[in-house]
Every structure is written in structure tokens, then in C-alpha cells.
């Protein structure tokens, strides 16, 4: 059967009750993912969405695609292996900032070393929502969100900078309430050959009373001339910024990396979203495997026959035994 | 009644500083002796260290199958002082010591790598013999016990080899001292020098120039022996004919080969001793040939490969992950994609894998976890032997999941068990823990080339087609608790997985009725497993089946126990049975009861402190061992040690004996 019908967002919805808080930024991210998949016309059964633990990690249940809700902090290892096992799959990993940068930080960093072709979307709200609002690894020092008994005394990690220095080859930031823009980032991420990382600024209406939708919209800063709020968020592409490495030279790479990291520190009154860094010239992991074992590209693990129709193993290990054989 | 023929046993040992080629010389010896027509079992002992600490290898050669080492040494080969200081005491009367003739004045106290406790021990022995503390004194003590001494002027012989080879840079040749020690051993026991050539090819993997150079050195040593020592060593090892087709292999290699046969196509790991060798071997052999099928048989292609031009070679992807958390999760991720996947680790790594194990159990994902146990707890004894993780693997994880824990007793079992582990995992859709240990990992053993005639791969209820029709439910309630499974990417097969309790589709559910049904579904698989696995895959029974005294054990103690039973039979002990448990969980209580109920003694032999299998048996079958023979000093049982422990139990009915042999 081939799909003749054009896929729409509706094909990626499930009839499951969504128990996120009303007004949660996660809704915008969920829609953006569904829109992106629909616009790319990827059939649902070719998509696998992996998540960790937390509010945002319930996302796979709301998407009509293979949905694997894994262990806290571990969506990446599951996702990477599924992609390596069957490169035909479009693999997404999703999870919160605590999941990805706290308990899963080791996987976050090491995933950057491999450039496996998946897209990782980090729902960043600065708090651990499902456990009632503790500070997450992206909450800055000195801040006190609603549920904290004392201001946070830990420094925040910079997800964009960390992704870039870890080796991610597509690094972007979106905003949960700008779904059109976010959808485009997700599409770019999926189409990019290599590991894509998209940090999404996601207001938590219940536990993060500092970085609210209103705050991002600049409702606390009224332009005296226009009498309108001055939004904090702006789009990198609208400023002429271009984070893509055009020529594969170390010099250009370092220049783009440095520029992107510098940009990633902008916060407060001017918060950039868009593509910070993109390098399409880094070999992907499957290309690296193929330098050792060319057959990988032709015969990925999930495609190989392992037995015959009469259930016999098909691997021939006689030469391996022969290397060990005792010969008089 | 047949008179048991006295078994020929020759125990050889070589030692030296780590990094000086002890391993390759031991492989050289083991292969060469096997090539001369003998069965061998070799045990490797080493420190958690790269260079400098003392390692040694004990090889036992025999005219019939041998499965363990013995305490006594017939011939000790050395090229450093430490080996002689440490091991001269193990050489029995009539045996021999090969040593560097220039080291006689070395002082015990000057050797930094011998622990103080060991130095005191050696000093005391020497004092008892009214001797000083030099190497010469140790040799004198051995000589007084009737041990033959073979001083070798290694340096002179290297010079001579250099002259023959036209090589003036002697430092290049210095590494060959270990080969020379082996050649000396061969000369002493009257073995065929040409077999050393075979052994050199095996040990140096056909690097022709290295092989030839080493063989020249061997000939120099042989000539030296002819003109300098009497040919009167009591043990002779002439060429004989082997009646079987054998391979010489260690545990990590045989398991690696088995994984390829089993159809494992993703193996993940994080480096850890003693498991990493398996993954490194697989990485080396990652591309392999496929069998041509015959008699109308054809490959079964996965539906995910439709319209693909596949390679005519097979490939196993070996992935070194950032930690063991990722290692098990990656194996699970690959399994979800329809691949037979495994990870390989040791106790500390498995500690990290427990959360992934629980998830796999909850989501009914087949995954194989190969564990090479080592001394615990914590970092414990990283390079030493123990069977301390049985209860840990049986109970690991919060909440309750079905699982299989199985253990292999020797290398041939490890081969077939590895394949079975994948079959069980897919058939019952559970995680399978395959317990091995350091002794199996690092020992070398001659075993028959594993026959593959009866090997079948059972993939259980894995659906190998796209589903175009009714709603697919991954966790559909069924009579057996096992539901049809599809790989990711199957059209019409979309499912959800979650570590939360879930409904048949795989969506989160906290409904108490669904919860109970799902727990019942998963846990009832334990009963299905009990009923489906045939008795001979669960236990093995050796010795007298009507015995009054029964040994119970699991894992690599099998070798020394069987060898000890042979010795006990020779000494006139009879009516001893040995029940080896191969499936540890779910525990085969019915078989234990059938055999052991009414036994006079149940003697539990294990390499841990508390007799873990005995406790499991008491819990599951209500049978409590009457006696315990345990060992937890990090060194595997020797057969003679098990024999002596059993004799203590049989003659004096001691309840708990702690053995403590080995250096």
C-alpha cells in the first residue's frame, strides 16, 4: 500500500487525553512537531519519537507515530540505536531541560560526538514541572521561581553553547508560542543530515512565574513611542545572522562556532531564536561506519537476514573457528 | 567395574611482569602443546595494571579432557625474579624451575611489586629452611625439596640468536625471552620443537617475520639444553594423536562468535574488565560471510528490507557508548527496531544498567545482557574471579519484572547458551541475563569445534510483515502473556512504549483494573518460561544419580567440580552426584526437588561469601544446603582445592568451609 492521500497534522494526532496544564508551552511544541512531519509528508509509521521522563516526555503519546517513552534522561541512547539499527526511520528525541541537561547530560554531550542523523528537541522551561517546580539546570543563579523556597544558587548551563562545543552539527532555538517559526526549525532539523538540536523556550504557566509568555512578549516593557510591548524575542535570520558553515575549513568552522557561542549568551532584553550554527560538512555516523564496513549502508542491522526459512543461522563463522583450530 | 585409568596431567606455569609478553607466551605454550595432541586448560591471573605488576598463567595439559587447573606445578618457567619468589613454592618434588641464571643474587626485599604480606610469608619459609633472602636461597630451598633447576643465560642466548639472524640491535630481540622460556620448557619435557612453530603462528597471528625470528630463538634454546642439561625430566610430553577436532579459545571469544551465529547485529558496551575483550573481538570481526543456503532453504529477509539490494556479507554493529546506562538503552533501542541486540559488561556496569533492565521488563523488550562477573563489591577486584552477582541479577530493579538469569559452566556451554539467550529473550519477550565470569572470560580451553547442526533461531512472536488492517495492540492480552511484536517502521504497527504502567496500546494508564491485568500478563510469563524450557536446558546432572551426597553449583565451578569428582572416584569415593543449575531464574524448583529431596547432604559449592545459589534454592524450592564450600579470595577454584574441600565435608561434615588457595 502506498499513501496516495496527502498527510495533514490530523494524521499525527492521537485520541489520547492530553493532561498538560492549560496554557502550557508544550502544546505549541507538539503542534509544531505534528505540522513539520505533515509538511514533510513522512508517513507516521516511518517516524519514531523517543522521550525521557517529565511533562514534555509525554509528547510521544500524543503523536500518531511510534512513540517510545523511555527512562529519565535517556531518550538519546534509545533513539540513536534505533536510527543506527534502521536508518530508514525518521527519529526524533524529545524531553525537558532537566531530563536532557541534568540527569541526561552525559548522553547530551556524547551524542554530539557522533553526528547520528536524529533531531533532538529540548523543551526548556527552567523548572522540573512534574515534581512541582524545582530549579532545573537552565535556571539562572539568583532567580527564585514560584515553588523555590530560596533563590537558586546554581549557575545555569547554556544549552546552545554546550551543544555546539559537544559537536552537534545543527543547533537552533525556537519559541513555543511561535509555532510557524518552530515548525520550520524542526523541518530543517529533520532534513539536516546529522544530529540536530533545537532548544525551545517553553513557558511553564504553573511553576515558572519569571519567564512567562507575557515576559517573552515584553508586556512589562512598553515602547513610549508606540505604546506597545517590546518583545524580547527576535529572529536571528532577520538580523542578517548566518550560522551555517559554507566551506569545510577549520578556520571558517571555528569562526562560526565562536560567533554562535557569543550569540548564545544574549539574554534579557534581546533573546535570539533561529539557527545558531549549522555544519553540513561533518561526516555522519553511518558514513563513518561505512569507512570500516561499507556493507552497513546496504545492510543495516534491521535489514539483515539472520536466519533461513528453516530457522537456521545464516552467519558463516567457519573462518573464525579456523583461526582457533588446533592443527597438528 | 572398570578400573579408572590414571589421567595424565602436566601443570605448567609461566610468570612475569605485565606487559612483558606473559600472555602471548602462555598462548604459545598452550597452543603448541595442544598441537602436540593434548587437551589444555589455561588460567590467567593478572593485576588491574598495565605494566609492571606480576601476572602469571597456569596451563594444564592432559591426555583427556581437562577443565580446570591444579594447585601443584610441575614446571615453572620464568624470566624475572618475582615469578620465582612467588611461585617456586608451588613446584612439586621432581618438578623443575626455568630461570634467568643472572638473577640469583636478587633480593626479596628489593622487589617493589611483591606485597609486604607476601614478602613476610616468603621470608618466613626461607627462615624455616635456615636460608637467606635472595633468589638463590629460594632456588636452594626448591632444590632441597627435589626440584630440578634450569638456569638459563638468556642474554647469551639472545646474542647467539642475534648472530644467526644478523641482528646487532639486541634490544629488539630482548622481548623474545618469554618465547625462550617456553622453548626451554619444551626442551625439558621432550616435546616436539616443530609444534612451537604452530604455536608461534597462533600467538603472533601469522606475522611471518616475527614467527621466524622467534623460532630461531627456540632452536638456539633447544641446542643449549641438549649440551647443558640431562634429559631426565620425569614428565614427558611426546606427540600424540588427537581424536577430536578442537579449538583453543577463551570465554570472551567463544561468546563473541556465538553472538554472530545467534544473529546479534548490535552489540553495545562501555569498557570494563573482564567483559570488554568480547566487544573488541566482535568489532574486529564485525564483517562476516553468510552461508549459502541449500536444499530449497532460503534466507528469511526482514520485511523492513523490502526492495533493498542487501550486501552478501553480514555485519554486526559494535557501539562503544558513554556509559552503561546508555549501553543497555542502546541495545533496547536496537531491539525495538527488530534487531537481536546485546550488551556485555561486568558487575559495576550492570549496577548502572538496572534502570534499563526494568524498562525492558516493563515494555517486554527482548535484550541480552552478558555479564562477566568479577570480584565485588564496588570496584572490588577488577581482574579477579568471583560469582557474587547471582542474587543481584535475580532481584535487580525496583518493582517486579519477569526475567531469565542463566549461567554457563564452560566454554562450550557458553557458546550454546549465548544463542539460547537470544531465543529465550525473543520467545518470552523478556530481558535475559547471561552470567559468565572472569575465569571463563580469561581462561583458554581446548573444546570441540561447536557443531551447528541443531542450532535454530527462535524469534518468537516477531511479526515479519507490514500490517494493513485492524488496530495493532503491542500489549494485547493473550493466554500466555506474550503478545505479537513488530519492529519500529512496520506499516500498520504503530505502538507506544512507556515505563509507566500502560494499556494494551502502550499508553499510560493508572486504572487499577488494567494495572492488575498488566502485572498478571507480564509476571505470568515466568510460569510460561518454567513450562517451556526443557529440563536439560535448566540443569545438568553428573555422577551418581542415586547418590546420597549431592553437590549443587552453577557457572564455572563446573570444571573444577567435575575434575575433582574424577579424583575422588580414583581415591575410592563413590555415590556423589553433582547438580549444575544452568537456569537460575526462574529457579527450576521442581527439578531440584525431584533430585535433591531426600539427599543426605546438599553441598553447595560457590565462589562467593554467602552461598547465593543455596539461598535462592532455599527461597524457591524450600531446600537448604547442608554444607557450604565457598571461596571469595578472587582466584578460581582449582580441582584439587574442590577435592580437598569436599573431602572435609564428606569426612568431617563441616558446615561451612572457606577455601583460600591461589596467588
Structure description:
The complex is a heterodimer of chains A (328) and B (663). Chain A is an alpha/beta fold and 328 residues long. Chain A has one domain: Thiamin diphosphate (ThDP)-binding fold, Pyr/PP domains (Rossmann fold), CATH 3.40.50. Helices cover 30% and strands 16% of the residues of chain A. Chain A contains eleven helices and eleven strands. In chain A, strands 2-1-3-4-8-7-10-9 form an eight-stranded mixed β-sheet, with helices on both faces. Chain A has a two-stranded antiparallel ribbon with strand order 5-6. In chain A, α3 (97-103) packs across α4 (105-111). The mean pLDDT of chain A is 97. Chain B is of the alpha/beta class and 663 residues long. Chain B has three domains: 9-228, 3-Layer(aba) Sandwich (Pyruvate-ferredoxin Oxidoreductase, domain 3), CATH 3.40.920.10; 246-533, Rossmann fold, CATH 3.40.50.970; 535-659, Rossmann fold, CATH 3.40.50.920. In chain B, the strands form four sheets. In chain B, strands 6-5-4-1-3-2-16-7 form an eight-stranded mixed β-sheet, with helices on both faces. Chain B has a seven-stranded mixed β-sheet with strand order 11-8-12-13-15-14-21, sandwiched between helices. In chain B, β22 (601-606), α21 and β23 form a beta-alpha-beta unit. The radius of gyration of chain B is 27 Å and the shape is globular. Chains A and B meet through β2, α2, α4, α10 and β11 of A and α1, β7, α10, β8 and β9 of B.
Amino acid at each position: 500500500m502506498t499513501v496516495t492521500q496527502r498527510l495533514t497534522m490530523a494524521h499525527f494526532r492521537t485520541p489520547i487525553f492530553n493532561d498538560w496544564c492549560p496554557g502550557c508551552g508544550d502544546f505549541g511544541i507538539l503542534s509544531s512537531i505534528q505540522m513539520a512531519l505533515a509538511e514533510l509528508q513522512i508517513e507516521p509509521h516511518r517516524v519514531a519519537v523517543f522521550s525521557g521522563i517529565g511533562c514534555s516526555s509525554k509528547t510521544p503519546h500524543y503523536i500518531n507515530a511510534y512513540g517510545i517513552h523511555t527512562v529519565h534522561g535517556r531518550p538519546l541512547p534509545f533513539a540513536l540505536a534505533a536510527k543506527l539499527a534502521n536508518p530508514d526511520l525518521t527519529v526524533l528525541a524529545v524531553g525537558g531541560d532537566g531530563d536532557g541537561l541534568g540527569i541526561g547530560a552525559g548522553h547530551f554531550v556524547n551524542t554530539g560526538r557522533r553526528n547520528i542523523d536524529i533531531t533532538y528537541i529540548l523543551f526548556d522551561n527552567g523548572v522540573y514541572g512534574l515534581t512541582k517546580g524545582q530549579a532545573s539546570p537552565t535556571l539562572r543563579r539568583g532567580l527564585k521561581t514560584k515553588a523555590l523556597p530560596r533563590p537558586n544558587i546554581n549557575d545555569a548551563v547554556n544549552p546552545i553553547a554546550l551543544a555546539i562545543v559537544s559537536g552537534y552539527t545543527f543547533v537552533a532555538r525556537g519559541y513555543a508560542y511561535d509555532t510557524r517559526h518552530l515548525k520550520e526549525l524542526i523541518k530543517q532539523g529533520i532534513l539536516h543530515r546529522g544530529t540536530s538540536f533545537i532548544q525551545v523556550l517553553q513557558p511553564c504557566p504553573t511553576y515558572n512565574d519569571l519567564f512567562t509568555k507575557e515576559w517573552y512578549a515584553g508586556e512589562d516593557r512598553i515602547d513610549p513611542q508606540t505604546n506597545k510591548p517590546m518583545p524580547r524575542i527576535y529572529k536571528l535570520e532577520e538580523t542578517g545572522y548566518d550560522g551555517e558553515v559554507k566551506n569545510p575549513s577549520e578556520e571558517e568552522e571555528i569562526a562560526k562556532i565562536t560567533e554562535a557561542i557569543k550569540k548564545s549568551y544574549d539574554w534579557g532584553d534581546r533573546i535570539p531564536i533561529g539557527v545558531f550554527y549549522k555544519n553540513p560538512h561533518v561526516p555522519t555516523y553511518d558514513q563513518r561506519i561505512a569507512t570500516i564496513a561499507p556493507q552497513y549502508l546496504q545492510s543495516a542491522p534491521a535489514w539483515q537476514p539472520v536466519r533461513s526459512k528453516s530457522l537456521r543461522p545464516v552467519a558463516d563463522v567457519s573462518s573464525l573457528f579456523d583461526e582457533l583450530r588446533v592443527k597438528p | 567395574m572398570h578400573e579408572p585409568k590414571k589421567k595424565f596431567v602436566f601443570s605448567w606455569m609461566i610468570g612475569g611482569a605485565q606487559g612483558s609478553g606473559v600472555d602471548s607466551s602462555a598462548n604459545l605454550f598452550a597452543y603448541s602443546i595442544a598441537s602436540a595432541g593434548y587437551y589444555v586448560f589455561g588460567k590467567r591471573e593478572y593485576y588491574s595494571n598495565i605494566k609492571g605488576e606480576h601476572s602469571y598463567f597456569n596451563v594444564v595439559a592432559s591426555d583427556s579432557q581437562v577443565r580446570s587447573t591444579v594447585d601443584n606445578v610441575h614446571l615453572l618457567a620464568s624470566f624475572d625474579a618475582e615469578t620465582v619468589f612467588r611461585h617456586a613454592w608451588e613446584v612439586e618434588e621432581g618438578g623443575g624451575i626455568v630461570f634467568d641464571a643472572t638473577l640469583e643474587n636478587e633480593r626479596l626485599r628489593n622487589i617493589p611489586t611483591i606485597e609486604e604480606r607476601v614478602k613476610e610469608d616468603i621470608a618466613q619459609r626461607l627462615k624455616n629452611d635456615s636460608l637467606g633472602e635472595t633468589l638463590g636461597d629460594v632456588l636452594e630451598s626448591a632444590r632441597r625439596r627435589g626440584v630440578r633447576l634450569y638456569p638459563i643465560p638468556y642474554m647469551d642466548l639472545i646474542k647467539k640468536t642475534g648472530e644467526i639472524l644478523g641482528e646487532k640491535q639486541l634490544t629488539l630481540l630482548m622481548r623474545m625471552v618469554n618465547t625462550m622460556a617456553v622453548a626451554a620448557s619444551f626442551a625439558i619435557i621432550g616435546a616436539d620443537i616443530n609444534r612451537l612453530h604452530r604455536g608461534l603462528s597462533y600467538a603472533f597471528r601469522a606475522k611471518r617475520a616475527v614467527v621466524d625470528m622467534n623460532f630461531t630463538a627456540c632452536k638456539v634454546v633447544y641446542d643449549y639444553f641438549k649440551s647443558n642439561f640431562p634429559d631426565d625430566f620425569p614428565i614427558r610430553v611426546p606427540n600424540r594423536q588427537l581424536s577430536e577436532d578442537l579449538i583453543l579459545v577463551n570465554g570472551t571469544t567463544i561468546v563473541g562468535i556465538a553472538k554472530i551465529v545467534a544473529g546479534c547485529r548490535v552489540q553495545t558496551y562501555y569498557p570494563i574488565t573482564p567483559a570488554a575483550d568480547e566487544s573488541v573481538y566482535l568489532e574486529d570481526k564485525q564483517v562476516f560471510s553468510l552461508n549459502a543456503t541449500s536444499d530449497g532453504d532460503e534466507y528469511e529477509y526482514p520485511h523492513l528490507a523490502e526492495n533493498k539490494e542487501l550486501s552478501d556479507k553480514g555485519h554486526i554493529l559494535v557501539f562503544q557508548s558513554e556509559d552503561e546506562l546508555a549501553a543497555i538503552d542502546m541495545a533496547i533501542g536496537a531491539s525495538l527496531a527488530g534487531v537481536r541486540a546485546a550488551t556485555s559488561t561486568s558487575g559495576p556496569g550492570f549496577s548502572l544498567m538496572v534502570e534499563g533492565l526494568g524498562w525492558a521488563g516493563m515494555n517486554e523488550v527482548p535484550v541480552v545482557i552478558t555479564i562477566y562477573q568479577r570480584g565485588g563489591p564496588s570496584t572490588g577486584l577488577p581482574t579477579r574471579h568471583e560469582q557474587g552477582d547471582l542474587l543481584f541479577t535475580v532481584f535487580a530493579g525496583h518493582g517486579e519484572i519477569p526475567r531469565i538469569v542463566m549461567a554457563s559452566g564452560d566454554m562450550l556451554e557458553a557458546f550454546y547458551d549465548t544463542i539460547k539467550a537470544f531465543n529465550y529473550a525473543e520467545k518470552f519477550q523478556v530481558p535475559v541475563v547471561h552470567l559468565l565470569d572472569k575465569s571463563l572470560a580469561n581462561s583458554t580451553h581446548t573444546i570441540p569445534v561447536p557443531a551447528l547442526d541443531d542450532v535454530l533461531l527462535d524469534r518468537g512472536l516477531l511479526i515479519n510483515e507490514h500490517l494493513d488492517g485492524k488496530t495493532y495492540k503491542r500489549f494485547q492480552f493473550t493466554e500466555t502473556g506474550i503478545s505479537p511484536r513488530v519492529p519500529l517502521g512496520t506499516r500498520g504497527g504503530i505502538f507506544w512504549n512507556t515505563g509507566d504502567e500502560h494499556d494494551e496500546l502502550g499508553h499510560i494508564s493508572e486504572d487499577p483494573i488494567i494495572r492488575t491485568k498488566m502485572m498478571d500478563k507480564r509476571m505470568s510469563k515466568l510460569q510460561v518460561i518454567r513450562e517451556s524450557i526443557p529440563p536439560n536446558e535448566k540443569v545438568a546432572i553428573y555422577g551418581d544419580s542415586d547418590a546420597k551426597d549431592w553437590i549443587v553449583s552453577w557457572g564455572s565451578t563446573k570444571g573444577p567440580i567435575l575434575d575433582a569428582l574424577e579424583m575422588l572416584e580414583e581415591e575410592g569415593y563413590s555415590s556423589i552426584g553433582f547438580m549444575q543449575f544452568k537456569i537460575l531464574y526462574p529457579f527450576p524448583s521442581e527439578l531440584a526437588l525431584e533430585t535433591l529431596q531426600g539427599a543426605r547432604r546438599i553441598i553447595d559449592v560457590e565462589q562467593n561469601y554467602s552461598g547465593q545459589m543455596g539461598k535462592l534454592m532455599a527461597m524457591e524450592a524450600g531446600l537448604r544446603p547442608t554444607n557450604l564450600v565457598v571461596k571469595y579470595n578472587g582466584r578460581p577454584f582449582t580441582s584439587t582445592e574442590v577435592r580437598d574441600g569436599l573431602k572435609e565435608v564428606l569426612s568431617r561434615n563441616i558446615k561451612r568451609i572457606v577455601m583460600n588457595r591461589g596467588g
